[in-house]
Amino acid sequence: MMKKFIRKSMILLPALLLSACNFKFVYNIEGLPAGGLDFDDDIEDSGTYDIKVWVDDKIVDLTKSQIGQFVTASGGKYTINATVEPVDEPGAASKMLLDVQDGADLFVFAQDQLSRLKVAGSLAKLSNTYVDALTEEMGIEAVNAAKVNQDVYAFPITSDNGYFLYYRKDWVSDDAAKNMTTLLAACAAAGGKTLNFEAPSNGFYAASYFMATGCTSEWTLDDASGKFTGYKDTYNSPEGLIAGKALRELNTSTVAKNSQASKLGDTAAAVVSGIWEYEVAQNRAEKNGWELGCAALPSFSVDGKEYHLSSFDGYKLLGVKPQVDAKKASVCRKLARFLTGEDCQTERFGEASWGPTNIASNQSEKVLAHKGLQALHEQHKYAKPQGQCPGAWFTALATTATAIVKAGSDGEVQAALDTYKAGLNDLLDAD
Amino acid sequence: MAAEKHSMSMSKKKTIVNTVSYIVLGLISVIWILPFVFLLLKSFDIGNTGVTKNFIPSAWGFDNYAYLFSSDCNFLQWYFNTFIIALFVCVIQTVMQFMMAYTLSRFRFKLRKPLMNIMLVLGMFPGFLTMIVLYQILKTIGLTGDNAVPGLILVYVASSGMGYYVIKGFLDTLPKSLDEAALVDGANRMQIFIKVIIPLCKPILIYTVLTSFMGPWGDFVFAYTVSLGSQAGMNVAAGLNSWLSPANIGSHFTHFCAGGVIVAIPVMILFLFLQKYYVEGVTGGAVKG
Amino acid sequence: MAQLTDLEYLKLNKAQRFGLKFTAFFKAIPGWFKNLGIKIWTFMKNFFWGVVNFFKNLGLTFWHGDWKTKVSYFVMGFGSVMRGQWLRGILFFLFEVVFILYMVLFGGKFLGQLYILGQNESSMGDDGTIKYGDNSFDILLYGVLSLFFIVALIYTWYLNVKQNKIGEDYVKAKKQLATAKDDVRALVDKDFYKTLLALPTLGILIFTVLPIFFMILVAFTNYDKSHFPPQNLFGWVGFDNFGLLFQWSNSEGASFSMTFGQILLWTLVWAFFATFTNYFLGMLVAMLINKKGIKLKKLWRTVLVFSIAIPQFISILFVSNMFQYPDGIINGILSTLSGGKLLIDFWGNAWIARITVIVINVWIGVPYLMLVVTGILMNIPADLYESANIDGASPWQQYSKITLPYMLFITGPYLLTSFTGNMNNFNVIYLLTGGGPKVQEYYGNAGKTDLLITWLFSLAVNDTNYKLAAVIGIMVFIVVAVLSLVIYNIIPSTRNEEEFQ
Fold first, then answer.
1. Class of A164-312+387-430 in CATH
2. pTM of this prediction?
3. Are residues B7 and B126 part of one domain?
4. Rounded distance, CA C426 to CA C442, Å?
5. Under an 8 A CB cutoff, do B160 and C203 touch?
6. Are C307 and B32 in contact (CB under 8 A)?
7. Which residues share a beta bridge with A270?
8. Which of residues 208-237 of B touch A (CB under 8 A)?
9. Is A253 on the interface with C (CB under 8 A)?
10. Cβ–Cβ under 8 Å, residues A119 and C224
């Protein structure tokens, strides 16, 4: 269901973090940002606007105040009557698909909904000036996450839609957390505790095994029709078989198929989840007096060779819907630009722990000290960018993973992979 | 002698059968109530906000309830919305259903059979198909988003006439001689309807009011669609349901339980008091309808 | 086979009787078809002549009518007003005016586009703006509404003409025409049903008939996520979507028709078990409570009725979480009892999930059934049981020969509606399992406990694939309708009252 699609939390901090040039971009509302870049041909767009924004529950108040900051900074050029409604990312995507005209003007959604929203015409394309500015501020990877074919359709607002490993340090040692087999053993030894990992039932997580052994699944999206017209998929291959064999290790009651950090330290010794669970995990650790560990995902071995679990880099994007009024379109764009600018991102990180996409924000001390974000950063070395694929692909992969985990032999694993491959054609029509 | 022995073993047999019956009944009662006991217990759990193995809370407290009433969440708004909706719906729906049932029970006119058949056929279509169309219709009238509440009321009551079966079943058991006597006395049909028939319908009236009141509390699909993100337009079912999404369930499950308890309590109280009428409605009308 | 006499029939044992009825049923089928054919032919014949007569009468009325009638053909209500029935006349006229206004101001343009469903695509500008073109959805919806309106107009116009003819005849015969005052008085008396029916039927027309009609039409379009108004247009594709139903995939991948067949099968199986487990268990519980020696009858009933009071979505959602693997409450109890060894993945294994769903449905449905059965049980005349006791019948015999037939007879129709209701029982399945566990072999994200209706829902809401959802909806309707018709005609409740007694 929707929820599975949205499971795209990815945590991906640009690896260019350390090596990227530290370009600090100052946004000047007057229209001419310092640095000389120009935003569009300047449309005279001052005035009063009603703007509706959909963001996650936790940052509603923050967003309201940030919009206020935008208005103040504009020095009276704009007056904005903002309606900020708490709608989670999956809900935002589905509601924008249901009704664009009454939907929000700005909304946050997860990367996997990008192609669907673009095809449905719910996203306005960004001009080259914007794209260049964003690339400087956030790095090319972030911008690629918002691309459909060659055009950018949204503003990356957080890069932490990936996943990593949380664990309770007195039950699972740092070393044990490095390898899947030792990790599972440590969980069981801690008194029948579980590793909460959704790979057996969720394509989003299961892909980490396949990507680790080098399998790829690339889909071509035809711009005009919005259909996925072709694919190149290597999951059904010797590498895929290796990944499948490793997946079977998860066929044990030590593995619980969820990603809830709320059970960490209670029934779970380790949880594979994203940054959105960080607060819950941290609270649990503090309340119950144990130390929280965050690390990159473990590696697994098959036939003597070791592979490090991969993951999806994922972003959450701030989309701007196409407007009928050109002036309003311009203001909405500028507002989105502001909300994803360095100051707002740093503030958002401080208040709600949303990992910034802004390179400069990521340099700040607080970010560097954040255990979760650093684990994400570490995992990023092994993570792959998500790319476009039909939403149904994740479901197909999920059911394949379920079949593989239950397989009794390598032959059955291969059979599951064959079924997966045979079903790929149907995904083309599905989109 | 033989007869005495026979009757003694008969009564012994009866006691055994009865005891076994009591045990079975007791077991059944426990099993049926158990989930609610768990629900209640979980709502007091402040040690762990997610789904857990243990139904006995690790730590007791009213925190979950406090959260519901705090400004952090819109539970009160949802509750208020749903209450208003239920209030309007139970009144209007009862009226509409009575109108339809009385007409079909008492009058004979050319289109009567076709009308009943058409409604039967319409009822065989799955309800969800119409969701997007109804949403668009409401949007055109402007009753979505923040104005979802009147929109929901409108949709719920508009087609309520189709649910006339129970009332009609009951009305059919009222003898036509009543109507005829009143006619002879010079009353017109409208007066008969209001002054004669309706007072006789007290049990079925209460049954209808009760069931129509309960209806809107459970709609989590359509209400979610119509409100389109607006908190002011959400009802309690959609709101509580949103707490169970994978992203939210870890921190909100116990809140869901507490919310569930608060939603269930008034309905349960109403039910307890009006149980007699509900039973009459079900046994009298539902089957014969 | 010659017809048996009554005596010979009674001599047969049960199995032979059943065999007889069974073969009789099948033998009756060809005759049934023949009757159906005759009925259809007669219907068409009557329809044809009815239409011809209709037009003939229209023409005659116009030709022979006086000038008032002739004018009324164009200005509705004119004749009625002229003959003193001003209330009716004005109402007719108003309707005509409203219709014309509606068509000119609103509906007309949609009607014209119905054939194409929109031509101008929306276009997105480079500056983030969009110019909305035609909206296929609106065109279809309001076009259909306009069609309804036109039908209504034709009917009203016909009434108007008829009124005129009657009015003319009355005047010629020097009879009194109903005045406006008479009309109003009739509305609260003889014609009270019209007053009562007005509002409910209007509501049903707009909020049920129109949407259903619309969705049926959608099944013939390509309305899905790539063709989503208002940004995109969708168009007519005829029977293509239905063609999918019969498409068997060549590869071993998921095929729509195979999935549909499997889900249909499970839907029927589920409905069967859900209905009958609840029915018999409910009956059992009701009889248990109703037994002579049991005290506190009200208490037992109240406890069970209690569970009906809780809104379903709360209780079912909670119960669903109770069965989580590996750390829901039930597994917690199981593992404590078995020392940590026994854990059941209730929702992960297809067959366990299916059984669990049926079992939980018992928990949901029995209290309601118990109420229904109790009411009926109380109506069985007690002397039937007494005489059976005197005759030395055992409890089982009493049950199977008195209680059961009586119950089945009375609740026959109820069982049927219960069965079809369970086929469409969205809440229980969706809230318990979401249709899962999802499997590879199924097309479009379907799972092993999915009913047709939950599959429809996920296609519509998650995939916004409305055209397929509409197709499934229509199929569901057909299945339910056919089943209802067949079963309704078979069950004894509606046929052999004497045999029962």
1. alpha beta
2. 0.78
3. no
4. 19
5. yes
6. yes
7. A167, A195
8. 225, 228-231
9. yes
10. no
